[in-house]
Design goal:
The complex is a heterodimer.
Chain A (H helix, E strand, L loop, with lengths): L1 E5 L4 E7 L5 E6 L6 E7 L7 E2 L8 E2 L4 H8 L2 E2 L2 E2 H7 L2 E7 L4 E7 L3 H13 L5 H19 L2 H13 L13 H5 L3 H11 L5 E7 L3 H13 L24 E6 L4 E8 L7 H19 L4 H8 L8 E7 L2 E10 L2 H13 L9 H18 L3 H13 L7 H7 L2 H11 L5 E8 L3
Parallel strand pairs in A: 3-11, 12-16
Antiparallel strand pairs in A: 1-2, 2-3, 4-10, 4-11, 5-6, 7-8, 9-10, 13-15, 13-16, 14-15
Helix pairs in contact in A: 1-7, 3-8, 9-12, 9-15, 12-14
Chain B lengths: L5 E5 L4 E6 L5 E11 L5 H13 L7 H10 L4 E9 L2 E11 L10 H14 L3 E2 L2 E2 L1 H20 L1 H13 L21 H14 L1 E8 L3 H11 L22 E6 L5 E8 L9 H13 L4 H9 L3 E9 L4 E8 L4 H16 L5 H18 L3 H14 L5 H9 L3 H10 L1 E9 L5
Parallel strand pairs in B: 2-8, 9-13
Antiparallel strand pairs in B: 1-2, 3-5, 3-8, 4-5, 6-7, 10-12, 10-13, 11-12
Helix pairs in contact in B: 1-4, 1-6, 8-11, 8-14, 9-10, 10-14
The chains are: A alpha+beta, B alpha+beta.
Amino acid sequence: MEKIQFDQLQEELYYEKLDNGLDVYILPKKGFNKTYATFTTKYGSIDNHFIPLNQNDFVKVPDGIAHFLEHKMFEKEEGDVFQHFSKQGASANAFTSFTRTAYLFSSTSNVDSNLSTLLNFVQEPYFTEKTVEKEKGIIGQEIRMYEDNPDWRLYFGLIQNMFHHHPVKIDIAGTVESIADITKDMLYECYETFYHPSNMLLFVVGSVEPNEVMKLVKDNQKNKPFKNQSEIKRKFEEEPPSVAREKQVLEMNVQSSKCLVGIKENQLGQKGDEMLKKELMTNVMLDMMFGKSSDHYFELYNEGLIDESFSYDYTQEQGFGFAMLGGDTRHPDKLAERLKSILLNASSGEDLTKESLERTKKKKIGAFLRAINSPEYIANQFTRYAFNEMDLFKVVPILETITIDEVKERAVNFVSEDRLTVCQVIPKSS
Amino acid sequence: MTLTNEVIHKQKGYRLHIVKTEKYKTNTIVWKMKAPLSEDSVTLRGLLPHVLQSSSNAYPTTTKLRSYLDELYGAHFFVDVGKKGEQHVMSFSIELANEKFLKDQTSLLEKAIAFLKEILLQPLLEDGAFHKETVQKEKENQLQRIESIYDDKMRYANSRITEEMFKGEAFSMQPYGIKGKVDPITPRDLFDYYEKAINEDDLDLYIVGDVEESEVIELTNRYIQLPERNGNTRPKGEVASRSNVKEVIDRQPISQGKLNMGYRTFIQFGDQDYYALQVFNGIFGGFSHSKLFANVREKASLAYYAASRLESHKGVMMVMSGIDFPNYNQAVTIINEQLEAMRQGDFSEEDIRQTKAVIINQLLETIDTSRGLVEVLYHNVVSGVDIELTTWIEKIDATTKDEIVQAAKKVQLDTIYFLTEQEGA
């Protein structure tokens, strides 16, 4: 077991890759009452085209299957896994994103039994025709619930605008029609391919003793028969750099309008420190242009184009990336035009001064310190980073290296008319 | 298991609470101002903190103020209003990096305390009152906050039952203010009220983090000194009880019915039987293994959510459930049956054990965050009692079945509210 020390942050991270390939990380947090653990697989809604374990040809699976599988993990022959955790004083949950599926619990007692339960329930799949059919109705309801949510529709609408082929444009839960095709055999096929320990990461953070936890995990894993698995082959169609659609307007049962402007990333293929720096630098750039202390924010707010809901973010994974900015607004078209024009003008470097860069770096460093007070943030973000070969604990040192010339160069390269798109939600005209 | 070591120090005009802990990478400062909830002041109090946080004498525009906070390593500053029983609370919070984790070692804590003083005691003025444009903009925001309650049907149902159940009592008001009273507020009105609040409110300052007690006492004393005032204690809740259950039906074009049932518990935080009430509420409707969940949702399939929640200072329990319109009578019947079952002692030792474990777990998890910790400690200030967390946990653990049944017998249904579809829909 490796011990990695972070002196400035006063944290110690323990790590070992087990024989079966599982990456195990333990971060003890002194003084905390709770322990939080996540067990995550590098398998999400975009992984719909792959070669199953022990086969030779690519298969395509129905939209929404990764999320469906996540639901079914909680139903076992012996009963409901949530109740099992509850009896042990823990609360459990799970989520599916574009690129990963995570199973987790938090508790202030019985950590050993809860950890064992977490490892066991995720590694003992149980799918039958009956349980699969029952779930179709429930997930169908969940899909309907999201359909009614204007913020969710806005976000996904923007992503659909951006991508011609990439599966990130597929709704994570799928559609009522697509999940109707799911069978128990398909679930087993996906499970066996992606839920191999070599494709997974366990992160335990909180009130724990690292040696004891590592021993528990090793003993638990040692008796399980996982055959060696070579790297999983996933396929993605070629995606053109431009956006698929420039604008989409959705009419919904709302009182306020909403508007998001998106920028599609065209420079992909980074990993590790390079990817981390790019993501941090782009968010720093957006903050300098649109943060609460910026001139643009002041103008947009005073002109009544934005309100407290205004936000912006850049995210990148392997194979896709995008920035989004916007929120509720009384003037969706005016806001879209203004945001686009500010972005297209970014390359002039007017908003990008050395002084505002230094201030923004400080702000981000402070925000990072605040974030790592949260065991949930650490476990989830670390896992997401690790799956992209990035290191959460390098955020501050890398932030410190960003220069104003790099930010200006990024502004020039990132924004381009053919990679901008707009999505809006407006009240239904009765 | 670590709980807390709160040290309370009487300063000039306010109480200083210091919780020294090495748990966090940040230091958290929370300033609380408490006064009795009243129709005359609630709207002014719903507006005041937002005006104060937007600018000050030294930082006369929001841009300048926010730039300064960015310089302080992104100090996170926000305000909030709430009610605890029949008291109105305005909160000002700052969370910022502890400099021991930074390359730059300037004392951020001192800067934060100086900033708090600036915000509270050095507001931006124009003609001897608050800055006109700021007040105007913040009144618009306040109206939006009040109106947003109506957009969220669950919140709307909660606010409507509160209005109806407590008609004539201060508790009927929600803390953002009264819609019709926002517009008439002038910068002068607000400023006059501000002076009154600074001089008369019950004041508490919490500082949580890896700090030195003596340094904190010295710094806060140096920057913030206010006139002494009389404490205001929690009013003993009026023990009004209704002979007939009040029923209120509202109609709107919606897709799912919102059922709320309001009960008076006659038990407040600090009472001997408060712990039994907590365990009772947990078994009745507090968690996913509760009677409401099992019977309204699982057995009868009437609802996606069915839960109960306690308000600890007025003495209220609220049951909430989202149901289809025609199931109103059936849902009310089942919920009444569950309360009767609790009164008859129809719950197991395992139910009690599991509920205690989950309540204690929740409490321990809440105090893992600095803000959660402050909220838990503030119950003592609001109620005027002084219960240490260890005691709170011990007493929950020691609760007997009989005590739970006694608590169940005290709880009385007062009002039923149903937000349903329009007639002839």
